[in-house]
Structure formats: structure tokens, C-alpha cells
Amino acid sequence: MTNLSLLLEHDRDYVWHPYSAMGTKLPVYPVKSAHGVRIKLTDGRELIDGMSSWWSAIHGYNNPRINQAVKDQLQDMSHIMFGGLTHQPAVDLAVQLVELTPEPLKTVFFVDSGSVSVEVAMKMALQYWHAKNRPAKNKFLSIRQGYHGDTFGAMSVSDPINGMHSLFADTLVQQFFADAPNCGFEQSCTEADISPICAQLQNNHQYIAAIILEPIVQGAGGMRFYSPEYLQQIRKLCDQYDVLLILDEIATGFGRTGKLFACEHASINPDILCLGKALTGGYMTLAATLTSYKVAQTISTGEPGLFMHGPTFMANPLACSTGLASLKLLLQSPWQDRIKQIERCLKAGLEPCRNFNLVKDVRVLGAIGVVELHRPVNMQLIQPQFIEAGVWIRPFNNLIYLMPPYIITTDELTILTNAVTTIISNIQE
Ligand SMILES: *Cc1c(COP(=O)(O)O)cnc(C)c1O
To answer: Is 207 considered catalytic here?
Structure first.
């Protein structure tokens, strides 16, 4: 048996993949290496990356400057506990994040994944109201079609249907939900868009610690874009009803939508902000929860006087070093121009998809291009076709979408959009 077939056999027999079943016939493709926007499969084929490894690899793979930062940090230490000890990479990254994010955010809590940064944000909101002696404010309000992660707190505020709340009904905390707005990014937010969440606040604000939302782009829950005006209204409502605002920028942060952070489209500030995914340029798992002095001091001076969280690998030095190198690379690059250029190419390249009956909508914002179909795609059929076309595109449900690394060239982008158009026209027949 060849090494490759043994690898595949062992993978099939012993290894879970994300949202998968063991013993599935769906193909997985062994990767040998990845450089720039190219993923090299073990069988020698090369694919152009349209996914940035789920929003994270914004500089592509194997960047020499980030590689060097990892090597340098390895010489000093790969990890050290963060209880009672500190180090330069964590402090430098925290200072930089505070400088880059909206004004009121002043403190940084490092964690090891996006889901956990959402758990931490939710705990912060709960401890804030506990410290203010309003313990009844212990629920969260969110909008449908949201996604905030796979841990229990994060699941409880994610879309009830996508998040399979019925399956976990006995375990998940019941939160409040409102319908998501229907206004697209360039549209105005109408009364009909805002009234569902407004009604929830009116009726239940005394039980609500915070609203949690993905700003502007709802990612894994449906790849929907909504109007900055909606976000502005939400900020006003939060102030009016004494509710904190948690923005989950795990997917949108670090330039993806054309602004460094998506909340900048609406010029509003959250009380708590979650960052992850692109934070290390896709090199290592690291996330962060930022909050204002107001929230931090209330938690720290109230009962019990401590914030009750502390992961083993908190502020891992290797991860913080890659975060610093990735941010430096991003900020020194003409990233705004690159995102604008990617946006133009995605718009032009995906536009022809509108002509297919199978296609419900085509939408593009920044470096995100989405083709929404009327029905779910058959992954067993479509995934090999993308591989055949030399691209890595991973649809989910009825969504075929692109979010390439920012370093992608126009020609490479055209290969991606052509693959999408051709393959949709094939399944159309
Ligand atoms: C991916 C994602 C998460 C979860 O992050 P993990 O690192 O997968 O735990 C949370 N919120 C949003 C908006 C995400 O896109």
C-alpha cells in the first residue's frame, strides 16, 4: 500500500473532520505544503486558494517574514504560563490591538480560539452586571443567522436552526433572538429591519446583559451583508436600554470588508470586541477579547473582584509573535487598495452567475464574494470539480463563496471566479 493510500485509510478510520461523520464517502485531500496563494496536494496537484483557510491566511501561506518571527521566538521560548508572568510579545500585541481598535477599547484578554473569545466576552458582560448589582441581566440578545462558535455559550447565541438548538435543548441557555435585518450593505435600514430587535429590547431589557452580533457581515450563518445604519441603530438602542454591545469581528477583522474592522463602516464602538481568525495571519490559533475601561473597572472593583477565566495557553508567545508579524505586514502593505481591487474583480467575475436559474443572489463586499443558490450544493459532486479546475473552494449548504488571501493577483482571482461560474453552469444543466 502506498503512503498516500495508507494516509487516507487512517484518516478515514481514525480522524474526525469539522462537521463530519466518521466513515463518510466525502473526499478529503492530503496537503503537502502551501506557499503564497498555492496549496500543493500530496499527489503533486496545485490549487489556488479561495478560502484563506477560513478567513485567516490573509497573507497567504509560508510568508518569509512571519516564518522568521516564529523562528526568532522559538529561540527564546515557545510557551510560558501567563499567571504571574508576562512577556514582550503579549504586551506589544495588546498595545497594538488597543491602538488599532475603536477608541473605548482599552484592555485585552488573550485566549486560544474564537469560540473561547466569545465565551470570555459573554462572561465579561455577565460579571459586569453582577458587579453592578443587577444580576437579573444575565441573558443575551442576538439576531438569527448569526454564528459565534461551537462552544456552549457561543452556540446559545448562534442561529437556533443552524446551531441545532433543539438537539442541545436541555443544555443550552435560552437566549433572546430577533430576526436579522433584510437591508443589504448599500441599502437603508427601515423600520421593518429594526423593529424585531427593538421589540425584544423593549420587552426584555431588564434581563439582557448584552447584544451580541457580527458587524456588517454574518459569516458562517449565511454569508449575509447588512446596512451600517442597522448597526448605528443597534448602538443607540443599547445605550437607551442599558445593554452592552459585543461585536464579534472574528471573521471580519483585519481588513476583510475593506475597513480594518467592520464596525468602522458604521463609525460605532462596541463595549466588548472579539478578534480571532486573521489575528495571526492564519499561522496559529490565537484570539482576543477587548473591552473598555468602564467594563474592565466595573468587573475588577465589584464582586468577586476578579475576572474568572484563565486558559492554560493564554497569550502563547509563539502565537503573539506571529500576530505582531502579521499585523506589521498588513499595515505596511497597501491593503486598502488590494481589497478594493479584489472587490472589483469579484464583482466582475461573479456577475455572470446572476444569469443562472439556480442562482438566488450574488453579493460582494471587500474581499468576500458570495454566490447564493436556491438549493444546497451536492458536495460529493462539486468538490472534485473544483479540484479538477485547480482551485480550493469549499462551499457550504447553498453558498459558494470566495475569500482569498489579500496577496492574490488579478489573474489568479480570475481563475477562481471562472471556476465558480463554469461549475455552476455545469450543475445548472
Ligand atoms: C469562526 C468564528 C467564530 C469561532 O472561532 P473558532 O476559532 O472557530 O472557535 C466565532 N465567531 C465568528 C464570527 C466566526 O467567524
So the answer is: no
